Amino acid sequence: MLNIIKTALNASSHKVSVVSNNIANAGTTAFKRSEAIFEDFYLQAEREGLALGSGARLQSNRVSHNPGQFKKTGVSSDLAVNGHGMFVLANPEATDQVSFTRNGSFQLDENGFLTTNDGQLVLSRTLDPIQIQFEKDGLPLSEFDVNPEGFVMTAYGVGSAEPGAQLGLAYFNNPAALAQVGNGRFLVTEDAALSGVYAPGDSGTGRVLSGHLEVANVDLVNELVSLINTQQAFSAASKAIQADNDMVSRFTR
User: Fold this and answer.
1) Which residues contact 147 (CB under 8 A, 6 or more apart)?
2) CA-to-CA distance for 36 and 22, rounded, in angstroms?
3) CA distance 158 to 139
4) Which tens digits make up the pLDDT trace of 58-85?
């Protein structure tokens, strides 16, 4: 009995950590909430041949990749995806190290590369880093934007905007199997089943919204209710341990 109660405490403690992390990141751009999935496990009785319930254990932390709502920022390098596609990023020190994200808070660095806030390169549909010129034919860059089809639109001087590189969006058949690595980024796994990197709008990826960011897909009310329920379950398991201890004390007197 005591071992079963211990598994209840461990499960409740873990779920409190997961829910607390969801609440703490409710204001993080494009954050994806996690849910702790538990399973029953059993001990096989050797003589009777019965499977005896022995509590619960963690099966996995499942990340929900449901798209969040959008907020308007007015910053042309802030991008959101109105669909299920993910931006493709590369490590500037090793461009073969690719990751994926829904966080489109991008910027142009001093060399004109479109990057994340921590310097990861944003890749095009052909998996090349996206770079623009700050000056062309002696004229300074006067306009930078990304259209819904993912083309980087630039204008110089008083000229009209012209399309350049096109953003690439990755589509996964099972995004829940992606490996989470922090900063809103994920790594591909075999189970995630990468369908391919497409032009925005193709194969369910969705269109690009310039001047917008995706907010976290966290419902604070639901998370707070879940936190209260989990804390109550932890408290109940603690009282069960105390009751078990009191029973043992009576029999050993």
Assistant:
1) 153, 163, 208, 210
2) 11
3) 9
4) 777 889 999 999 999 999 999 999 999 9
Question: In 25-146, which ranges are continuous DSSP H helix?
Answer: none
Residue 53 DSSP SS3: strand
Distance CA 248, CA 27 (A): 48
SS3 content of the chain, % helix, strand, coil (to 5): 25, 40, 35
Sequence-distant (≥ 6) Cβ neighbours of residue 205 within 8 angstroms: 81, 83, 84, 85, 169, 170, 171, 198, 199
Of 164, 190, 195, which is closest to residue 179 (Cα–Cα)? 190
Give the pTM. 0.85
**CA-based nearest residue to 79, from 58, 107, 53, 47:** 107
Task: Note the pLDDT tens digit of each residue in 175-230.
Answer: 999 999 988 999 999 999 999 999 999 999 999 999 999 999 999 999 999 999 98
Q: Is the dihedral of CA 166, 146, 205, 22 positive or negative?
A: positive
| Helices (runs of H) and strands (runs of E) counted in the chain | 2, 19
Residue 18 CB contacts under 8 Å (≥ 6 apart), including other chains: 34, 35, 36, 61
CA quadruple 161, 140, 128, 99: dihedral sign: negative
Q: Which of 180, 133, 179 is nearest to 157 (CA)?
A: 133
Which helix (H) or strand (E) element contains residue 181? strand 179-182
Three-state SS for 178? Answer: coil
Distance CA 159, CA 141 (A): 10
